[in-house]
Amino acid sequence: MATIVPTILTTDTNEYRALVESFNTFTRRVQIDIADGVFAQPATIPDFSTWWPREWETDLHMMVAKPSEHLPALLKLKPSLVIFHAEVEEDLIPIMEQLRNAGIKVGVALLKSTYPGRVKETINASDHVLIFAGDLGKQGGTADMLQIEKIPIVRSINKNVEIGWDGGVNLSNIRAIAHSDVDVINVGSAITNSTERPAIYKALIAEADKRGVVLS
Fold first, then answer.
1. Please, which residues have CB within 8 angstroms of residue 137's CB and are 6 or more apart in sequence?
2. Which of 94, 118, 154, 164 could make an SS bond with 184 (beta carbons 3.0 to 4.6 A apart)?
3. CA angle in degrees (0–180, nearest 5) for 44-107-188
4. What's the alpha-carbon Rg for the chain, to the nearest Å?
5. Burial (CB count within 10 angstroms: exposed 0-12, middle 13-18, buried 19+), residue 26
6. For strand 105-110 and strand 57-63, is the pairing parallel, antiparallel, or unpaired?
7. Residue 126: is it exposed, middle or buried by C-beta count within 10 angstroms (0-12/13-18/19+)?
8. Are 178 and 185 in contact (CB under 8 A)?
């Protein structure tokens, strides 16, 4: 059964606080998206401005061009998981090793154009692989369902890795995504834009748990 994880993506600190307080009423695992305005636009609130309830299992999705510049802040924040993008020019392995030595899990995200076989070393060094199937730096996009084809390739490279999906998830496609052998499904606008966030969160979980053929 896949874990449904709400995501926070915002440029405004007041909105960030409101989302944290809202999400804290119905979940304990959240992904926070950080964009530097270079690798992904627009720039969100910076990583060093983030905070979360102590009991949360927090994943930081770092959409940044230079992960090494963010390492001091990440070591101080101590999230549960930090996910960098495979497409950056820096060598991620040493950065990931420093985070893991500090007790922080590490992951790599693959954009739609990135074939898993090209980044085998990074996948093998990861605790988590994020299949990114939406529009970078935005919520509310359309899921590229062809990205599901990457999942068995990732499993063949690292059979023990946690696999996440990010991008375009809603009630109409979450069952198909959940049945594709992912462990985590990150959900953005379907929850954030809802006036009944706890209810839609529960509905997404119920839909993901359904068995049988997905009927149109």
1. 9, 33, 35, 40, 41, 42, 63
2. 164
3. 45
4. 16
5. middle
6. unpaired
7. buried
8. yes
**Residue 87 phi/psi, 5° resolution?**
-85, -5
Give the separation between CA 181 and CA 69, rounded to whole angstroms. 34
Which phi and psi (to 5°) does residue 106 adopt? -130, 150
Torsion sign (Cα): 136, 137, 143, 147: positive
Q: Select from 129, 80, 131, 86 the least CA-distant residue to 103.
A: 80
Q: How high is the pLDDT of residue 137?
A: 83
Is the pTM higher than 0.90? The answer reads yes
CATH of 3-209 among 1.20.120.1200, 3.40.190.150, 1.10.287.70, 3.20.20.70: 3.20.20.70
Cβ proximity of 78 and 100 under 8 Å? no
| 1 or 23: which leads in pLDDT | 23
